[in-house]
Amino acid sequence: MLEFLLIFTVVFLLNVIPAFAPPTWMVFSFLGFRFPDHMGWRFALAGALAATLGRFTLAKMSRLIVRKRLLSEQTRENVDAIKDRLEKRPKLTFGIFLFYAFTPLPSNYVFIAYGLTTLRLALITVPFFIGRFVSYTFWAFTAAAVSRRVTFDDTDALSYFSVYFVTTQLLLLGLVYLFTRIDWRILLADKKFKWLERPGIKSPGGVLKNQ
After folding, report:
1. Backbone angles phi, psi at 103, to 5 degrees
2. For residues 145 and 23, what is the distance between their CA atoms, to the nearest angstrom?
């Protein structure tokens, strides 16, 4: 019971962190190597529940802090253009997120961007849970099988904090910013790419100028 609680807590915290946290699949790979006789689907289930709850919390934080306090009204209306399109295709949206959840690609920026909309979080958390449960089971059992055949150095599993990792995290956070700057209404309606114009301010002469 203590092991399940420990895994749940660690995975939850890793999935609440907005950036620069090691991917959870790496944690399960490490545990599979270190404890090949103890890792099983129940640990994967606990990890998937914790990861889903953590990402749900991250999306809610993005919505409550970033959307409501940091985004302008113009930017919120722009992001809602995506909401309007996704609400019309719930099955397609569910399928895309399910496919993504099966991959080892980072999901922090996806939940941050999704949280900026006002879409129902169940639309992303349910497929995320299914995909993560299957993928965590796969990584844990695969790592356990490999550990029985090769010598494993613990330091190799913890060397995630590399130049590559930092660079990709910075790029992904940059993508979240660009996500809010694209004029989605024009892109979705007219299939034309355009940056969202910044709100104007009035000059002393009464002429509007872009900030």
Report:
1. -85, 160
2. 20
